[in-house]
Amino acid sequence: MCHLLKSLYGLAQSGRNWYLKVCEVFEGAGLVKLESDDCVFMFNNKGLITYVVIFIDDFMMIAPNDEEIDVLVDKLAKSLDIVETQGDNYLGLKIRKSGAGITISQEHYVSKILDKFGLQNAKSVTSPGIPSQKLDEWGDSPLVDQKKYQEMIGSLLYLATVTRPDIAFVVTNLARYSKEPRQIHENAVKRVFRYLKGTSAYGLHYNSNDVGLLSGIADASWDSTANAKSFSGYLACLGGCLVTWKTKKQDVVAMSSCEAEVVALVALVKEIKWLQGFLSELGAQDCVKYPVKMLSDSQEAIGVINNSNTHYRTKHFRRSFAFVRREVYKNNLVLSYVPSEMNQADVLTKCVTGNLLKDVMQTLKVKSVNLQEAVKT
Among the four residues 142, 264, 281, 372, which has the most C-beta atoms within 10 Å? Predict the structure, then answer.
């Protein structure tokens, strides 16, 4: 057994030791870590705020002008070896700024993974999945290479969680078969790649002149898997622009569609509470107007939460709706009904047609990047 004098790359504790070192250097330079996010720091230089986002050893600085960045880099360079890079790429994200706002996309990453799996010449399709296809019923479909399947899923998950909510449900659903993937599942994964081939330039758009207010919408598809579990999905937006989203198979077996919807609302409330704190620390309190509006297409779930009584059919998940109810009673949130056909989170709970998916993404400002109008920062 040897006692290491310093961390070695690849060891379990090396990442944490590096993070503690970065925090020590940042604190010495006058940066303050946000309570809501351990990887976001703020530097106040005579009223001018610079934000630093860290991802392992990749830092991104957001400042009012270049001079503020130079001041901070000079401070950090005294303790860290810093190499500055100019451009609009960060961790595979292409960040563009124009008069209309900011666009974040990953078309280069899409091209890279298409080449990696030999699908660069595949014929494109208009939807990432087939709504009528039942992936739990694989019959005599043969097993396929598990390692390759997991690599394909991993590549897609990065896209689905960063800039591409349009593939989030399909990829999350296909990830369930990573242990013993069949040919039917691999074909479904390749269809996602074919969809990306035709939509590689899709990205998130944020308006420059109208940030808007924080809001959220949740949905659930009840009893949608072979083991009777449901899928939850939610969207959190600033104005009409999407900021966070999630799709997930629920951990519990919901006994009713109402219970499944409440579970989805609980997940959304957790996200909204975090976003409230995060925006407050960033000094963007104007983006949060209390009570924050949350939408659901389940009148029964809204009624259960707004009603102070406990019914015998709901007492087994009392803790879930009590959590949401408390936020409603404190006037932090307000629940409103939205018709199912207008519930944008529906695309995060089930596979839908290409036309419906495209329409929903357009309303969320997820669309193709106009390269002619984009101006590099």
Answer: 264
C-alpha span between 285 and 211 (Å, rounded):
12
Q: Give the chain's radius of gyration (CA, Å).
A: 23
> How would you label 151-178 residue by residue, b for 16+ Cβ within 10 Å and e otherwise?
ebbebbbbbbbbbbbbbbbbbbbbbebe
Structure confidence by residue, pLDDT tens digits, 288-308: 999 999 999 999 999 888 886
Quote the CA–CA distance of 86 and 90 in Å, as a whole number. 10
If one counts every other C-beta atom within 10 angstroms of the C-beta of residue 143, the result is 13
List the beta bridge partners of residue 49.
44
Q: 3-class DSSP state for residue 275?
A: helix
Cα 46 to the center of its chain, rounded Å: 34
Is the CB of residue 218 less than 8 Å from the CB of residue 232?
yes
> Which residue type, as a one-letter code, is found at position 90?
Y
Q: Which two tokens stand for residue 54?
A: 């860290």
Backbone angles phi, psi at 237, to 5 degrees: -130, 155
Sheet-wide strand order for 241-249? 241-249, 231-238, 214-221, 292-296, 333-337
User: For 279-343, where are the E strands, in sequence order?
Assistant: 292-296, 333-337
Chain mean position to CA 326: 26
Report the mean per-residue pLDDT for the chain: 90
Q: Are 221 and 350 in contact (CB under 8 A)?
A: yes
Which has the closest alpha carbon to 371: 165, 207, 202? 202
pLDDT digits (tens, 9 = 90+) for 151-205: 999 999 999 999 999 999 999 999 999 999 999 999 999 999 999 999 999 999 9
Query: What is the DSSP track for 343-367?
Result: -GGGGGTS---HHHHHHHHHHTTEE
Distance set, CA 359 to CA 170, 345, 355, 365 (Å): 17, 12, 6, 10
pTM: 0.89
CA distance 186 to 156: 13
Which domains are present in the chain?
14-86 (3.30.310), 105-201 (no CATH), 211-366 (3.30.420.10)
- Count CB atoms within 10 A of the CB of residue 7: 15
